Fold:
Amino acid sequence: MITFDKLLVGGAWTAPATSGVLEVRSPHDQSLVGVVPEASFADVDRAVAAAREAFDHGPWPRLAPAERRRVVARFNELHAARAGELAALITSENGSPIWFTGWLQRSLKDFNDDFLDVAARFDWESELPGRDGHRTVVRRAPVGVVAAVIPWNAPHQSALAKLVPALLAGCTVILKPSPETAVDGLRLAELLAEAGFPEGVISVLPADREVSEHLVAHPGVDKIAFTGSTAAGRRIAAVAGERFKRVSLELGGKSASIVLPDADVDRAAAALKGLSLGNNGEACVAHTRILAPRSRYDEVVDAIAAMMRGVTVGDPMDPDTWIGPMVKQAQQQRVQSCIEAGIAEGARLVLGGPGAPDTPGLEKGFYVRPTLFADVANTMRIAQEEIFGPVLAVIPYDTEDEAVAIANDSAYGLDGGVWTADPEHGLEVARRIRTGTFSVNGASRDMRAPFGGFKASGLGREFGPAGLSACTEYQSVAL
Structure:
């Protein structure tokens, strides 16, 4: 068991203002993973005061960009050196299978290197051609104090997508980890403290929703960077709008994968193992609506069913496990309720269904049965709501135009894909879909490309130059 008794406030380990604690338990067997202080309103006030002082009067925003890159690069090396340890910790907290957390934690070294490269090439200051004897200098100034609020499903990627560009831009940051992954949040705080950021620049405060709202609404915060549910995003947007705070929101998704009549169905089904069921299906980008042509409908359903029958559900620490437990009992119950709704609304249950797997050794965990529905109408709850679990719906279509219309008939617009023998035609289909990201034949996303969503999937973009830009304000100086 891991125990912390202090919080990182302004870069210094500080006793919490109250005695409240967060107990983090394994969703696999309910064993105690760790105990950490639960941040309070008073801790937020101290962290914001430290961040405000560091931004308004400290050296960090005034350093040359190359100096900030040096410190962030130091942190990146420290973080990468502990990728395996951090992956195991996150798996113990949230139930993500170790194959997923291991892959993701190792990939974050390159993710951060990309940000460092972007910052080295960034147009921090430029000059417009003179006119009438005058000239104009255009600066990219740091946006200020940033509150970064992150979820539990991929905690370090979500944290670094906000921390790294904000720090490179010269901002100061208060990171608010989720209670479900509070222990790895303070492990991350240890590495940030070791990297050598100046006083006041970094705080890490694990807490639940009420404290999060206090942070978001705090008058000393200039920008909120949030990843999480669409419902929470709406609340944050409302609070930010009242105060003219800058905001970026990476929210939910209900992504569609369109299988065209000329697609390699076996290839598509194999790739959907990761695209649809990766990270236990607890991923905003999961392709959970599979759109199949009626001419090949049974073939598509059979191929996906065969893929899902080969998926191992079990202890997330086992390298052979593909799907572990849901993060908490409430999430397990939500997934179960969605499966029951699919049955009640008349979808055809192909495999899985209500109840937990009967595998020995999983009795204490928050497990669900990977479930596949066919003959799904896009109006059904299982086709419209983000379930955040291993539940897939196969929806039939007759024409390509109908498939595009079904894909776009969603409150969300985060991700999606198309499967076709003609990649250029796949690009044509992509141009018709209202999502922030899209893949043709399962092509990997470039982590330097902008990431974010249309519609209820959020506001703004993260990653690469777009993510760094989002942490700056333009300033035009006429001379």
User: Anything to note?
Assistant: The chain has a mean pLDDT of 97. The longest helix spans residues 98-121.
